[in-house]
Amino acid sequence: MNASASSKNPLTLVIVGGVAGGASAATRARRMDEHARIILYEKDEHASFANCGLPYYIGGEITDRSKLIVAKPELFRDRFNIELHTRHEVTAINRREKTVTVLDRNKGITFTQKYDKLILSPGASPVVPSLRGVESSNVFSLRNLADTDRIFAAVNARSDGHAVVIGAGFIGLEMVEMLHRRGMKVTLVELQKQVLPPLDPEMASRVEQELIRNGVKVHLGAGLAGFETSGGNVSKVILSDETKLDADLVILGIGVKPNVKLAQEAGLALGRTGGIVVNEYLQTSDPDIYAAGDAVEYRHGVSGLQQRIPLAGPANRAGRLAGQHAVCGQSRPMAPVLGTAIVRVFETTAALTGLTQKTADPAHSRAIWVTTNHHAGYYPGAKPLNLKLIYDTRDSRVLGAQAVGAQGVDKRMDVIATAIQLKATVYDLTELDLAYAPPFGSAKDPIHMAAFAACNDLDGLMTTVRPDVDFENMQVVDVRTAKEFAELSFPGTINIPVDELRQRIGELDPKKETIVTCASGVRSYVAARILEQHGFSTVLELTGGASVRSHTGQPVKRGKEEVPPPCRA
Fold first, then answer.
1. In 3D, which of 496, 207, 518, 555 has the Cα closest to residue 369?
2. Residue pLDDT, tens place only, 346-395
3. Helical pair 19-32 and 312-328, crossing angle rounded to 10 deg
4. What whole-number distance in Å separates Cα of residue 545 and Cα of residue 551?
5. Would you please indicate which residues are annotated as catalytic (active-site) residues?
6. CB 61 within 8 A of CB 178
7. Distance (Å, rounded) from C-alpha 447 to C-alpha 438?
8. Interatomic CA distance for residues 45 and 147, integer angstroms
9. Cα of 99 vs its chain's centroid, Å
10. How far apart are CA 374 and CA 406, in angstroms?
């Protein structure tokens, strides 16, 4: 592949913004064109740092701050011959003259720079509500190293104090764990009625349970309404339900908004979710201007919709392709993005890829839940893993997945994300030749088990119902053991262990619509097949069984006592 300009007439590439998108664009452009003049302007102090690692430095898991600097200025200069200018903010684009206006924040002067090609990687900024007191010295958001240093110092000053984290997304949950690790008393606030809003509620419930188990107070369904201040600091956080929370430190993790002002003022097209519109080669509505990173709309790999997906992986890939296409005029197209993401919350990991049940078309999709060990159960250390698989009922294509567990979550999500990218079906998943040895997995991996259940559903061997289905007027048969049933059951269910079902089948009415359930779905499938072949008119299987239903907010019985859904703080 040849560079688009010769060494006698080198192309000038200007890049606005560093970190994942901009830094990747700059270094890829240099590898593809040795003679181009490449100029990178970054408005902050550092052009390449590990923003995903910032919470872990605050929490003390990463102890060396210098490790957060991915590429130092010397690397840009000496290895890649890139003209890096930090604390330089591009304030305007003149598309007709092909120039950018730059504010040198070090010297306080403004100048213009011509470009042949321009790449925008302005990123996104934390959402900060317009509330009195939000400017207080102990209210923080986390975007860069300067923010990190301020939070780190504040935690050092009050490591035994009260921290309130607003927003239960990925960053919010990471900060909760890290502040707890530093000894702070942590309260988590989320406007939605669940933590981790990208997940489906019954999966997120397990993460909430882990937070509570570790002493974190969780307030759901109430948003930030205001602050009480004293001496320039916030002393209390006020919620929309009028709850007041003690606060020595407040972290805002409400979300991010794309930095599109520069693009908008230059007349570049914005999309339906407010991000910069780009084509498959990351070109904006001006073909000489590219964009990558958190300010851009990407095409979703399942829904096909253009949407903002502010994650480091897509930003890096987009920046790399934009850098190549800008200097060469050709590259591979940007692949659709699935929004694959993962977070650790104390001893629990949660991940998702593709569509959730909330975002999938309910008319043409179904979901299967399985609960099984992350490796062979007979090998020491096996931990439960909850996997949810979403698939298209028309063509059996895999649409998405979520998993929550102590171990093994990451590799299952990576496998399924790969399968979705390759447009695999649930039948394809059953045939995957996955690595197996007792310390690592099972001969029938959790992915296989979920796919088997989905195939049984599509093949008509069973009909599943959601774990939160209404049991009223249904004949519900729980085929777990009597001991399991006594520990956890649901009102209105009949307990007949699966191994006794053939002998006790006369206790059931074959003409009634019957739901069969167990702990996770394995025994209930066997029981459903028995009942169907004994003439029961309608047999349905509760996918996910008691393990999942107990997280759907349905009434639960422990022994003879009915327990209402958990009361949140």
1. 518
2. 999 999 999 999 999 999 999 999 999 899 889 999 999 999 999 999 99
3. 30
4. 11
5. 52
6. yes
7. 16
8. 12
9. 37
10. 8
